[in-house]
Design a protein that fits this description.
Elements lengths: L2 H17 L2 E6 L5 H13 L3 E5 L1 H10 L18 E6 L3 H14 L4 E7 L2 E4 H7 L5 H41 L1
Antiparallel strand pairs: 1-3, 1-4, 2-3, 4-5
Helix pairs in contact: 1-3
Length: 176
């Protein structure tokens, strides 16, 4: 690859990293073009994208990325063999689930590592977050949890008022 092409490739990867700072690195050796196309389609539904990368160019883009500059990212010996980067803005648990489900049928896809919100994730951590609900689902659960006490209080007050109204009605019928 010519020097200008490398600079352009690093710039493209850097742009992707800044747009979607969370990512998963996976080995894809042995997957067919059809398999990769199928995986890309599933990932697009989650708002993410898969890009086959040159390892040294990705590492350079990662070091230059403003979204990752403050973090000392060390993936150790992960950068061996052909890798694909799966970029995600904030839906990494959903993306990890797609990868995990896809890897059940296609053993050639092997998740190596990931990066989410400033934390480097090893293979086990990426698999663990695959079981987490998505961000909107978590927010809905929190909202339900916050709403439950106020609903119970309102229901209790309503029952007290209804009991008082029944008592007043009973007294009125007795005296009436």
């Amino acid at each position: 690859m010519a020097n200008a092409q490398k600079v352009e490739a690093v710039l493209e990867l850097k742009t992707r990293l800044e747009k979607r700072p969370n990512f998963i690195l996976a080995s894809y050796s042995g997957l067919t073009v059809e398999d990769l196309s199928s995986l890309r389609a599933k990932l697009r539904k989650e708002g993410s994208e898969l890009k086959v990368i040159k390892n040294n160019l990705f590492l350079r883009a990662l070091k230059e990325s403003t979204a990752h500059k403050d973090n000392a990212i060390d993936f150790g010996d992960v950068y061996k063999g052909p890798l694909a980067a799966i970029f995600s803005a904030d839906a990494l648990p959903a993306v990890a689930k797609v990868c995990k489900d896809f890897a059940k049928d296609k053993k050639e896809l092997v998740v190596k590592t990931g990066y989410m919100d400033g934390q480097v994730l090893d293979q086990n951590n990426v698999e663990a977050i695959a079981g987490l609900p998505s961000k909107p689902e978590l927010l809905a659960q929190i909202a339900r949890g916050l709403n439950a006490p106020s609903t119970q209080i309102a229901s209790g007050i309503n029952q007290i008022m209804a009991s008082l109204a029944r008592a007043i009605n009973a007294v009125g019928e007795k005296n009436g």
